[in-house]
Design goal:
Helices cover about 85% and strands about 0% of the residues. By secondary structure, it is mostly helical.
Length: about 130
């Protein structure tokens, strides 16, 4: 995972790259990326509770993800996204523990990739045409 300095560089790179004309506007692409960081903040927060032996590590990752979400997306939308993602994981835990492992594994993979290489995900949003 990257340091806060590296994440700051990602945001700076994102802002510069977004000046080029793409299918999604700069504002929308950054907003969507921010919402993905909000999902990851919820995942890491959930994991800090689910795995107390790694709580400190997950709390740090949750905090970093939430900070990026807040800088990139509308705060209200990011908070709603966080809440919905956390609630979804909580419901899966309550209703179908067998499914939770797959859900958490998918979040882990997505979030690790996002924190390691946010530029690629931003590029995805900038080129998205729907």
């Amino acid at each position: 995972m990257r340091s806060n300095k590296a994440r700051g560089a990602i945001v700076a790179t994102a802002l510069c790259a977004a000046e080029t004309l793409f299918a999604y506007s700069e504002e929308r692409a950054l907003h969507e990326l921010g919402l993905e960081y909000a999902d990851c903040a919820a995942y890491f927060q959930f994991m800090s509770i689910a795995d107390p032996t790694q709580a400190g590590r997950y709390q740090l990752l949750a905090s970093s993800s939430a900070s990026l979400a807040g800088r990139l997306a509308d705060m209200d939308a990011a908070a709603e996204r966080w809440s919905a993602a956390f609630e979804r994981m909580r419901q899966v835990l309550a209703e179908n523990r067998a499914q939770l492992g797959g859900e958490l594994a998918a979040h882990h993979e997505r979030c690790a990739a996002l924190l390691d290489d946010g530029e690629s995900r931003l590029q995805y949003w900038l080129e998205r045409d729907d």
